[in-house]
Amino acid sequence: MVEPPYWLTNKSVDEMLSEEYDPLRKEFMAALAEEEIKVLKYITGVDSNMPRLSEVMEQAWTMGTFWYTLALSSPTGLFGLFYQHIQPLLSGGESEEFGEVMPFFWCDADLQLAFTESKQS
Question: Whole-model pTM?
Fold first, then answer.
């Protein structure tokens, strides 16, 4: 799990807000990308098309996996991260109905498949 450092805002993970974190993350990412280019050019002698850490981190932010991996690595921040950052990605915002379907995200895939097939019969 590769992600930008969560400590950029100097807040605990369950107190982080995207609006505060993102500008600091962008500054960090720009510096990282610049250094990666310098190092790769020094090592290879040319501009390289090798995958870069900054690209992987940017993709994690864009896809929302940043919040997911952060929640996995922080049991104390899990619920706050889920309700503030992960649930909106899954449901498009706060929703009363989400509480009814959310347990099925945590089901064993075989049980989910069996449940779906029994409903179709």
Answer: 0.65
